[in-house]
Amino acid sequence: MKHFQWLCLFIILGCEDGQLARNNDFNGTESDFVESFQFTESVSSDLETPTLLVDRSSGKAYSGNVDRLGNRQSTSQKYLNGLLNGKSIKKSPDGSWVEAQYLEGQLHGPMRFYDSDNIIRTEMFYEKGKLVPGNPL
Hints:
Blueprint: H1 2-14, E1 26-29, H2 30-36, E2 37-39, E3 53-55, E4 64-69, E5 74-80, E6 83-91, E7 97-103, E8 106-114, E9 120-127, E10 130-131
Parallel strand pairs: 1-4
Antiparallel strand pairs: 2-3, 4-5, 5-6, 6-7, 7-8, 8-9, 9-10
């Protein structure tokens, strides 16, 4: 039993930044978001290089969910190592919304525009940040 306790302690302390011990989800207003995070500027001349979301208090790239409420829209996004990764949803006050998929900071997968009645109005498909012609969906 004593060895099991030491093993658990070793695993928890060995996780980078105590990942098992904290919840990285952010839920707040747009102004709370601006106070808590910043986007790094790309040092590359490559316009396709995504910017990183960085936690202002730690200076580290952010991983977790971000739900924020602004004056003109609400946003729900997932980040991994500072890059958009997974589903991103933006909702407008009129009830229309956009859902997109990201992989390592680039659009990758379907992007759908819905009206206020949840009917798809436009649908596109991206692969590694590039629009795929012919919409294979």
